[in-house]
Amino acid sequence: MVAKKDYWIAAVIGFLTGVLLLIILFFLQISFLYKNLIALVLIPILWAAGVWFGDFLGARVKPFFSQFGRYAAAGFLSTTIDFSVLNLTSYLTGVTTGIIVGWVNAPGFLIAVVNGYLWNKLWVFKDYDKEGLFHDFPKFFAVGLGGLIINSTLIIALTTYAPVSIVAAVGPSKWLNVAKFIANIAVIIWNFLGFKFIVFKK
Fold first, then answer.
1. Nearest to 143 by CA among 79, 80, 195
2. In this predicted model, what pLDDT tens digit does every residue of 1-31 receive, in sequence order?
């Protein structure tokens, strides 16, 4: 069941996501009309609407949709944290391909995992217990580590073995982000199932 405060929380998460999205677009040198309006106004509205829609489906289809709406909002924030740190690290090191890109990918992913843990424990699954805030963190980290291995393996494969013509057409930095996006799709599914059925299993 979603409370009114959940919509406000989703809007704040959406705003933070929008700010980080602007940072990512800056690194990728992408600009378009109404970029700031979309990032700082439309995204918060969409995140709140997504939580409402998840609750709507949860009441009529399956209860887990209520959790999934909140999971998606928190997950997008973690994703933009991951991408923004990846782009910063790649910019500072100049690394966009090869085995070493796995190490460039790791800092953002790990920061995003900690962020995701806190949002999932306290807001998505509302798993309050007397054993402490980080009681479930080892299980969460294990699921996240599995996600990091999947994520980094796919990124290394997609940046190292992609056709040169595609990478040249898109640009190495942008292709790194495309590879990260593709890898994150697999990890989103992995993480939700792991968090729901292993970490925060009631």
1. 195
2. 677 899 999 999 999 999 999 999 999 999 9
